[in-house]
Amino acid sequence: MTEKESPRDDRPRLMADRSFWGMTSTQFLGAFNDNLYKQLMLLLAVPLVAAEAAAGAGDGQPPSDIQGWATLVFSLPFVIFSGFAGYLSDRFSKTPIIILCKVGEIGVMLLGLAAFYFYDLFGTAGTWVVLFLMGTQSSFFGPGKYGVLPELFRTRDLPRANGIILMTTFLAIIFGTVFAGALKDLLVGDEGGTAQGLWLGLVVCVGIAIAGTLTSLMVRKVPPAQPGIKLTADCWAVSHDVYEMLRADRVLLNALLVSCVFWLVSGIAVPTVNRLGLGLLGVDATKTSLLTASIGFGIMIGALLASRLCRGGHGDRLVSVGLWGILGSLIALGFWTAGGKHLLGFSGSIIALITMGVFAAIYAIPLQVFLQDRPPSNLKGRMIATMNQANFVGILISGPLYQLFEAISTGLGWPISSVFWMMGLLVLPLAIFYRLDSRAGHEVAAPNSTANSRPAGD
């Protein structure tokens, strides 16, 4: 069936669609809260590392940090609950699920406020429990958030919708990440402060969660994709239908695996950049968060470029271009001088991180559109859940892997920037061998499906 023949052509134009602006606003506000809280937890997980900047790479042993374990705590719920969340998003309308998840975000932010207010009583245990709950809320929000896009919008509008939503999402990441650094500097400081004072910042997060709940009410209700589906044991992992679809469609399976490796590398990048700023470059939490946010700024720029190029039919080639660009940026970020100082410095690192973000978007958007549009409609929710699960398996592994890479760099007497080269070794095989061919294998994209056997290009 072609786009012209589609019975759903009466859906409104994207920019005139109230649901699009509601979904974009809801995602923006949720991403702000997520990244504000996560960045606060990551910054608090890095010990005082001023001595590392002064000592250089070869002198003394820089203190270790536990950012990798914080990453693991946040990503674990996605691995545990994404399968069940995908079942719910196919069994019921995705719209009320989105709204309920936003209501849940209000509760999580209130618990975060309480965890910091009583920080002197409960210590880090309370804040880490909230981090886990935040991951849980996000794991149920994800399948509905991404799975609803093909149901709300026409296929030809998906690249533009994904590009704008991704752009505004990373704008929220920039604001949330930078705001986290500013809050830490203002309310905690470098020495002598206590994390208890951060409860004031969580008041803002509660207000943003309420606003996000209100904007979610703008999203029109869509019918359940598969209302008769039964809850079975495989719904907690990869459902049987999705498993059979992936087994039959190797193009889709390979894209899923490549997406997983990308998020593995992304999960290592953020704590490495935090350690680069606080340790090797010796800047404060605000400037460190600016470094981390530079990646999001680059992705925001790249999202506009990638969405336009995807509409022009260049999506498959963009994946390879993006991979080589990411690899080049990682190599540049890894260099240090004979005296143990970072070669690029603060300003050069910002440029390299923005560049890496641009290529990351050029790489990620074609894959995301392909993974959204390829499955039949009755499997989209569970496929998005499987994608989330696979991506967060990558992020889950990235936590311990960061700790390993950090230990290797310390053991070799290398600065933390050497971890960028270790990340590059993960990207190199994909850049050399992987090629996306979205037009291959259409005939096997929907095995065992009677509800919708259309090709992905409709």
Explain what the structure shows.
The structure is a single chain. With 458 residues, this protein is mainly alpha-helical. It contains 16 helices and no strands. Helix 11 packs antiparallel against helix 12, helix 11 packs antiparallel against helix 16 and helix 13 runs antiparallel to helix 16. The longest helix has 32 residues.
Keywords:
458 residues; Growth Hormone, Chain: A; 0% strand; globular
Number of domains: 1
Tell me the CATH architecture: Up-down Bundle
Tell me the CATH superfamily.
MFS general substrate transporter like domains
CATH topology: Growth Hormone, Chain: A
Low-confidence stretches: 1-6, 48-61, 444-458
Mean residue pLDDT: 81
**Radius of gyration from the alpha-carbon trace, in angstroms:** 22 Å
Topology order in helix (H) and strand (E) letters: HHHHHHHHHHHHHHHH
CATH C-level class: Mainly Alpha
Q: Note the gap between the termini.
A: 6 Å
State the total count of DSSP E strands: 0
Quick one: overall form? globular
Which structural category fits the helices and strands?
mainly alpha
